[in-house]
Structure formats: C-alpha cells, structure tokens
Amino acid sequence: MAKLMVAGAGSWGTALAVLMAEAGRETVLWCRDKERALQMATARENARYLGGVAFPEALSVTSVASDLKDAEGLLFVVPAQAARGWLERFREATSGADLPVALCCKGLERGSMAPMHKVLSETWPEAKGSVLSGPSFAADVARGLPTAVTLASEDEAQRSFWLERLSTPTFRPYASDDPLGAELGGAVKNVLAIACGIAVGKGFGESAKAALIARGFAELQRFGLAMGAKPETLAGLSGLGDLVLTCNSPQSRNFSLGMAIGEGADPATYLESQKSVAEGAATAGPLTEQARALGCEMPISEGVAAVIDGRQGVDEAIGGLMNRPLRSEA
Ligand SMILES: NC(=O)c1ccc[n+]([C@@H]2O[C@H](COP(=O)([O-])OP(=O)(O)OC[C@H]3O[C@@H](n4cnc5c(N)ncnc54)[C@H](O)[C@@H]3O)[C@@H](O)[C@H]2O)c1
Ligand SMILES: O=P(O)(O)OC[C@H](O)CO
C-alpha cells in the first residue's frame, strides 16, 4: 500500500496519523508550521496537542504541501473555518489530482454556511470526497481504546478504499452512503454540546442535561432532514452517537467551553485563551442562519449562537428557552 497523508497536526490529525502508522501503514503527518514539524520529527511526539503518545516508525512529518503528490489518499483534519484556503493549496500542490480525500473536520463554514464536502467540491472539484465522523476523542483513539465511527461517501469505491485503510483492531469504521448526514451530525452536536456544558456549569443537574440532549437531538434531526440527510444517519454513530459522547464529557472542548460559560466566563475571552479548537463556537452562527432560511426551529442552537456572539447573557438565553410557548414534543 502506498502512503497516506494526514493534513492537520492538532490532536485529531495526530491521533489518526498514529493510528494508521501503528497499524503499519506508511503515513505522513502534515503540519502548516515548519518549525513545529521539525520539532515533532525530532521528538517523535506532538507534545503540544497529543503529548505522551510516541510516533510509530511508519509515521513521518512534513510541512510541505506538495509531499501530497506521493500519497494515495488524504485525511483532511484542518479546522473547518480554515479548510477552504488549505484545500485550495492542496489542490494546487497536486495540480488538481483526483485524490481520495476523507474530510474529518466537524463544522459549517461561516459566511457560506457550507458543510465541508461542499467546500471541497468548490475548491478541489477533481477530489473524491468522503466524510469520516462519529464519536471519537483523539486521546482515546491514540491510546488504542475501542472506537466505532462512520465513513460516508456516495461512491462505493471510495467507501471500500477508506474502510480497508482505516480499519484496525481497535478502530471500526461503518460504511454509509450519506456524507451530508454524517457531516451535519458532527457539526450540529458541537453546538449542542456547548448548551449541555452551560447547563452543567450552571449546576442544573442531570435531568436538565438529559432534556437538552433529547431536545437537542430533535433539533439535529429537524435540521438534518430539512437539509436532505437520511434519518438513519442522524440516529447513527455520526449523529446521536457523537451527540451523546460530546454532551457528557469534559474531554470535549465544546462541552468544556459551555461549562466555562456556565460558570461565568466570557465566551470570547475563553476562546482566545485556548490552543485547541471548539468548532461549535464558529458553527453556531451559520447553523442557525441556515436553519432560519429553511424555516427550521432550533431554539437551543439559537440560544448558544446568541450567547457566543454576545447578543444574550446565559440567564436570558435560558429564560428564553424555558418560556417558549408549550407545544407537542414531536
Ligand atoms: N480532537 C478530537 O477528539 C476530534 C475528534 C474528531 C474530530 N475532530 C475535528 O477535527 C478538526 C481538527 O481538530 P483537532 O482536535 O485536531 O484540533 P486541535 O484543537 O487539537 O488543534 C487545532 C489545530 O488546528 C490548527 N490550526 C488552527 N488554525 C489553523 C489555520 N488557520 N490553518 C490551519 N490549521 C490551523 C492548529 O495548528 C492545530 O493543529 C476539528 O474540526 C474537530 O472538530 C476532533
Ligand atoms: O472535543 P470536541 O468537542 O471537539 O469533540 C471531539 C470529537 O468531535 C468527539 O467525537
């Protein structure tokens, strides 16, 4: 098998690169910063984002985008708001090759409101896009803990390509033909995890969190179906599965952001202080904008967007949710 490139040396890109290399696949981890790439290559670990996880022999590091020319596939793990520019760079570096690209980032683009596979088709139309999503904390995957995810593509050949390469004794991808549904689940759950974190930070208890997960899932389904996703995808690993994981653990950066806000932190100040990305913060705006355009009610996500953008305080947003007109649960 030829080598794979993993683009994006944050915690998830590094965990995926380690997973692939551990399984004996020749893997190159691309980092945008030359200095950091050199540090990782020397230290044989990514101390900044995934400290304590040793790089297997089959893992090399580069900061040169054109090294992608020698790879048979790309796992793209750059944060959603930076995806467009880097996808353009990789297309240029490969002269528009028809390469398999698995999108691993979870977010909607601000401005265009586009999911990542749309951004890929606009920036690199020749690429063969797939989506890798589902409940998976980088630290768990890097430690070899059992994980199951969704690998989605409309193209059977692409599903086979990635299933064959991604599956390891501890990492189990399930195939789906619904990349849109797989992507939307991952993007929306990040926003809902912020709401759950806020509830926990406010000390509201487990009942409130369960209510937010269930009503949040109703929002996720409503939005996904309005966008054209399949119901079974939304109820699967990349939808409900990832929602449950992310809404229940301070290991989640989105949940932790919510907790900090619930405890009184200013969202913008907290976000500036973090080296890691909490995608839900940037996705809340485009998500609710798109939902409004579709006539789709998403009150929890609307509340999160208003708090993140500073249009509402936490108590005002919570009051708004609790005082909505009584309605049927459906
Ligand atoms: N960490 C996880 O457990 C996990 C799991 C599944 C999916 N994801 C998704 O993977 C994506 C990447 O997240 P992560 O957790 O690896 O990141 P991270 O928070 O661990 O690190 C952020 C990374 O983004 C890079 N970055 C920041 N701004 C950038 C820019 N303008 N251009 C290019 N790179 C930039 C940083 O250098 C760093 O490598 C996100 O969409 C996230 O939702 C993460
Ligand atoms: O840390 P978070 O909130 O970005 O969540 C990480 C993964 O998406 C969980 O599946």
TrEMBL record:
Binding site for substrate: 106, 253-254
Pathway connected to this protein: Membrane lipid metabolism; glycerophospholipid metabolism
Binding site for NAD(+): 8-13, 138, 253
UniProt record, GO biological process: carbohydrate metabolic process; glycerol-3-phosphate biosynthetic process; glycerol-3-phosphate catabolic process; glycerophospholipid metabolic process; phospholipid biosynthetic process
Domain Glycerol-3-phosphate dehydrogenase NAD-dependent C-terminal residues, every copy: 178-318
A GO-annotated cellular component: cytosol
Reactions performed catalytically: sn-glycerol 3-phosphate + NADP(+) = dihydroxyacetone phosphate + NADPH + H(+); sn-glycerol 3-phosphate + NAD(+) = dihydroxyacetone phosphate + NADH + H(+)
Pfam families: NAD_Gly3P_dh_C, NAD_Gly3P_dh_N
Domain of life: Bacteria
Amino-acid positions noted as binding NADPH in the UniProt annotation, renumbered to this chain: 11-12, 32, 49, 106, 138, 253, 277, 279
Active site (catalytic residues): 189 (proton acceptor)
EC number(s) stated in the UniProt entry for this protein: 1.1.1.94
Keywords: Cytoplasm, Lipid biosynthesis, Lipid metabolism, NAD, NADP, Nucleotide-binding, Oxidoreductase, Phospholipid biosynthesis, Phospholipid metabolism
Localization annotation: Cytoplasm
Broadest EC class assigned to this enzyme: oxidoreductase
Residue ranges annotated for the Glycerol-3-phosphate dehydrogenase NAD-dependent N-terminal domain, each copy included: 5-157
Binding-site residues, sn-glycerol 3-phosphate: 106, 134, 136, 189, 242, 252-254
Function: Catalyzes the reduction of the glycolytic intermediate dihydroxyacetone phosphate (DHAP) to sn-glycerol 3-phosphate (G3P), the key precursor for phospholipid synthesis.
Record-linked HAMAP family: NAD_Glyc3P_dehydrog
Family of the protein in this entry: Belongs to the NAD-dependent glycerol-3-phosphate dehydrogenase family.
Protein name: Glycerol-3-phosphate dehydrogenase [NAD(P)+]
Species classification: Bacteria, Pseudomonadati, Pseudomonadota, Alphaproteobacteria, Parvularculales
Gene designation: gpsA
